[in-house]
Amino acid sequence: GIQVEQSPPDLILQEGANSTLRCNFSDSVNNLQWFHQNPWGQLINLFYIPSGTKQNGRLSATTVATERYSLLYISSSQTTDSGVYFCAVSSTGGFKTIFGAGTRLFVKA
Amino acid sequence: GAVVSQHPSWVICKSGTSVKIECRSLDFQATTMFWYRQFPKQSLMLMATSNEGSKATYEQGVEKDKFLINHASLTLSTLTVTSAHPEDSSFYICSAALRAGGWDEQYFGPGTRLTVT
Questions:
Q1: I need a labelling partner for B17 at 20 to 30 A (CA). Which of A17, A45, B55, B84 fits?
Q2: Would the CB atoms of B103 and A30 count as touching at under 8 Å?
Q3: Which residues of A touch B2 (CB under 8 A)?
Q4: Could you read off the pLDDT of B23-54 as tens digits, one per residue?
Q5: CB of A39 within 8 Å of any CB in chain B?
């Protein structure tokens, strides 16, 4: 089945810093989503982005489907950005969603 | 829009008892619902895919007789953990797929933390 790798596994930032999170996948996808899991466990949809670039406030994402990776950019990080960021994909022709292991982010005040 | 609720948010039960978890899409009809399990500091693992009116599709290694899934309507799916044991203690999360613009985007419930004593 499709493999999803996220990097880095852990990230500590000073408030105000920028960061880039990466998601590599092993096969073509028809669905890619980025989520933020807050400290209470709630998964929050950030982007649906099987290809192209999207921006929402301080967050933006780019997926290069032909090269099988996606990037999540966080600018001017805030302490409330802390949590785990997951990339999840569904392979072309499939419906099952596979999650990466996540990037655990901690933003220091 | 696209809100998914889960009930209960946490539950403690004794070993050998059964626990039912409800997942509802509040403001949309879900083509498909999914059930995940998450252990501490780990990723989400898909347990089963559920479509309204049909039997759930379980992932390899998930016991279908232990984790009973009923998808009664386009807005409600339930997961029953039967004869729960301490190793079933985990965070259970459901999601509902919303079809829009030709694709399915998943929206997640807040999760249910199960502790079996």
A1: B55
A2: yes
A3: 45
A4: 999 999 887 899 999 999 899 999 999 888 88
A5: no
pLDDT in tens, B57-103: 999 999 999 999 988 888 999 999 999 999 999 999 999 988 765 56
Query: What secondary structure does DSSP assign to A7-68, as a single string?
Result: E-SEEEEETT--EEEEEEESS-EEEEEEEEE-TTS-EEEEEE-SSEEEEETTEEEEEEGGGT
Query: Tell me: the pLDDT tens digits for A57-100?
Result: 999 999 999 999 999 999 999 999 999 999 999 876 666 789 99
**A50 and chain B: CB distance < 8 Å anywhere?**
yes
Please name the residues between 53 and 92 in chain A that touch chain B, using a CB distance below 8 Å.
86, 88
d(CA B12, CA A63): 41
Pick B43's closest partner by Cβ from A31, A41, A100. A100
Q: B36 CA to chain A: closest CA distance, Å?
A: 10
**Rounded CA gap, A45 and A74, in Å?**
15
- Rounded to the nearest 5 degrees, what angle is found at the Cα of B55, between the Cα atoms of B53 and B57? 130
